[in-house]
Fold each of these.
Amino acid sequence: MAPIALEDQDHVRDAAFNKALHGKSADEKAGLRAMLKKDPVAQKAAIDEYFKHWDNKAAGVETAEVREARRAEYATLTRHYYNLATDLYEYGWGACFHFCRFAYGEGFRQAIARHEHYLAHMMGLRDGMKVLDVGCGVGGPAREIAKFSGAKIVGLNNNDYQIERALRYAAKEGLAQQLDFTKGDFMQMSFPPEVFDAVYAIEATVHAPSLEGVYSEIFRVLKPGGVFGVYEWLMTDHYDNEDPHHREVRLGIEQGDGISNMVKIPEALEAIQKAGFVLEHHEDLADREDARPWYYPLDGDLRMASSLGDIYSIARMTRIGRFVAHNFISGLEITGIAPKGTRKTANSLGVAADCLVAGGKEKLFTPMYLMIGRKPR
């Protein structure tokens, strides 16, 4: 693979666009209320910029040049994806944008938190440590891990809107002294070398154009002896790029989740070791024999829900729930209440959901390949 040319960072430009698109919607309650507060002109610009990478570029005609164009604009692609998708994520899934394992009788929110606790446990996070969360979203995992471990956490994010929401939530929960959130590109962090005791990434570094590149940056900012833990999105060894169906599954996940270049498990293992880490543990947690599969909330089997609250939450994410929500959004868009392009984004997320389920059932994809690496002293 050719060396990655990093995108130029322009925080002033990004802040101006964030203000134009989102206005004060970061202060709104999560989900639909925030979604309806967007500027339609800026929304169209974000839609056009994101979907130029996907429209009329189906799996059957995808070329290496098309994929390389996405990798070349990795930061812009990811930033605009989350400009468009964040409110829909919070409405449908909550403030923790990741999958998890499910134990018998375990509720959705409880399982999400346990997945975060398990990573903190495997890394040995504890009170007083200075920890970096790479690709922190709206700060849901950072808040949970801070409360669980006592660590002080800095969240890194290249999307201004998500940072605003993360800061708001941290203040609301009384965690402003324990958490901070900063703007940046994880391929070229502004932190000096060797400043963090630990770094984690939860389903975030998949947005990198090169895993070796982002893992090398993480290695640089870790102190000697520091630990890096990651839940990585990867295609498994069962994935065959020559199989048209496999490519459709992979491309559907990439388009609906803002991913420029998803790779297979062996490449990730090679990347983390080339970055300099001593690999202490690696495992596909999706292969564990759990009571329910990680993809069950998207699969539509409400019999697997463990409580009435879960039925309500998960019903919104099933095919029927998504159909109802998408048509409701379409009505809001037609009447001018929601900005144009909102349904296109929701439909893209729906395609991704179906491809995620297919990838999980067919063992082509995992969202939870756990790797724990340590920087030598």
Amino acid sequence: MHILILAAFWIQDDGPPDPHSSPYILDFVKVLTSPPFNHSVTCVIPSTQRSWIGKAHLLPPSSHSFKGQQTKPAVNEQITDHLKPSYYDPNTETVHDTIPVPGHSRGTDQYWVLVPGTPATCVQLGLFHHQTLFPHSPPCSAQDFDLVVSGPNHGRNTTAAFALSSGTLGGALEASVCGVRSIALSFAFFTRDEGQELIREASEVGTRVINRLHTDWPQPSQSGEPFTGYVPDLYSINVPLMSGVSGMPIRWTWMLDNKWRSGSLYKSLPVTQNHETAGTKTEDPDEASVHGRSTAPSFKWAPSFADIWKTVEASPEGNDGLVIRTGCTSVTPLRANFEGLWGKEPFTGDLKL
């Protein structure tokens, strides 16, 4: 079957190619653009890792400061409302500040745009400012894109606890809200053996699934006959990064509704460690106690996934988290909204106070 995607728009949340945080990008794009797929691809991705950021857009912090406040903004708070992209050449693996021009050794059809923003921001710029980012390419509006592919994410995006925080899912949701079909693609690794053969096999499986979903995307009947099915806004694909995955089943799944229960995603640092590692000039603890003030606590990103694994192990069959643990690829159809409970008991009529 010949599947034509005029322009597949690709984003992800792990940033540009990096052996640790973003090891899948180059191989996936090579598979997507090579025979037998031969898709046309536009790449707009964050310039740095933006995992766990959901469908956020980064806005500058308030300029208001409280009386007596001396703490300078942290690095991740130094955000402005101006974005200046850079340009990545996947052939030389180099980054440039200027847009490639026709005839330059960096071909205008090959470069990727690196945006100092989130996956959702990349979607906005890629869909609505394509001509600005790629001035030497033919004009292209948001309606000219057949599909937005967000990924492949470095790690699984299964179960609600992960998916609701995912920048990869967030990018796909942003595209859906913009009226463009989208697919979030994630590779679930089980060991740190992430060789190119495994990545290529997972990329080929992911691309074949993307092709089928795009071709068979449900849509209401054009003949006027009643349509009784469901039309997804987006799909979430999770491919296990393991040898032989191409021979394993590809299963429709539902997203496991699980919670973080036993602890925080952060751990608090001891006061002494806080004092030594804060990175800014802090008040001496002894001096602070003399003046009747305590030292400010600090926290470190240190998520524990034990809760999540337990909920998956105890869950019924058919959900995304359990399916990928069997070595099968998971495909979850989704709608880009918060499903409401209005009209279902007891949420009917008026709320009585």
Amino acid sequence: MELAKRCILFVTEEVAKRNVEACVGIQLVNEASWGAWDEGMGSWYEHVITAVGQVDRSVPLYISDAWDLSRAMQWAAHMNRPERSANPIIVAVPRYYCFTHEDKSQSPVDIVRRVKHEMEDVTAASGSVVDKGAVQVMVVEWSCALDSASWVRYRGHIRDDLLRRFGQIQAEKWREKAGGSYFWTAKAQYILEDWDFPTIVRRGAITTPKNFALRYDEIGFRCGKAVAHKEKEKLGAVDAHIKYWDSTAPDTHFEHWRFDHGWDQGFTDAMDFFQLRAVANKKGECGGDRIGMLELWILKRMREAGQKGPFTWEWEHGFRQGVKCCEALLLD
């Protein structure tokens, strides 16, 4: 384990020196074994994270959930607290539906229904950095592969239609519940075409999100529309926030200015993400981004803004509403 730590520190130093281009994070462990949490994995993680932070405290660190997502999220939430000063932690999870006995005992239609209810515990664990800590999950491996035992169970459907639906619902779910996802793999042999990204895209099982297909002039138009509505939307949100809490808890001290500041920051950040590619490219089909890892982004912005104390929740509420409002205007 000491050798693993030394290797991770070497990579961290290279990233800190900008010798590694386009690095979005460092994964400490890939697919840790079952029961690793009971064997001290959390303590080892914390030991390594402390050492990494002494080199570069900004680089995101990905940890394996060791096939226990609930426990991993609890651990990550503890590490991603506003009062701590450490690297952001992301829980890396693989999602496949072709290996276990449960997978093989179900038809493709049954598995599609399963995917619809995936990661509901992620929603329960997130949504309030102040109260719960920042919980962020990344689906680091997924595919459209199903076992032959599942395929023999499908009846009355066209295989390609089922495959397309299976891919589409996974892509939608991972965008909704996770900070992002990686399809496995980029290129596979013909006999493994359900693992082959180009083939899956050609079949329509994975499609480009609509906001990524926007042209430069459309980005500018949408940003202009959002800016034009900003002040009216902000005044309405601040007024509603104040009235709600004044009626819910009259004669109670609040710091509503934090909501105002948070809303402004959230709206501005959402706008900056959306127009980033357009500002850089200034032509053609450039697409508009959204804030992906919102929980960790809120944590980062909260720390940078120096938000502390019992009313930090007002800033966070404002930030979330600012992001939501801006994205609604941009993507309408």
